[in-house]
Amino acid sequence: MDTAALERDPLMIAEEWKGEGRQVAIATVVETWGSAPRQPGSHLVIDAEGNFEGSVSGGCVEGAVISEAADVLASGAPRMLEFGVADETAWRVGLSCGGRIRVFVERLD
Question: Helices H, strands E: what count in the chain?
């Protein structure tokens, strides 16, 4: 991933890609709990070739989100994805990797 692109807004990148005629999906963090490294409102944009910019989890679930985005681009049907530890006791016993993230993936038309 291009370092300069990290500083650019993924939504602007999505618009550029659409202007180039690419099919584009956007993944948006809608909810987090625990140690999720990205805040709600964070974006990852994906094109039909699997190119992506932005982040929804700092690398933890990007691969799975990109895979789901390919299906969203093909079908046009948006999806809500959820990843992570579902048991809130994970924090009480000190699991630093515990947490949950919900990501909404949709095609940009």
Answer: 4, 5
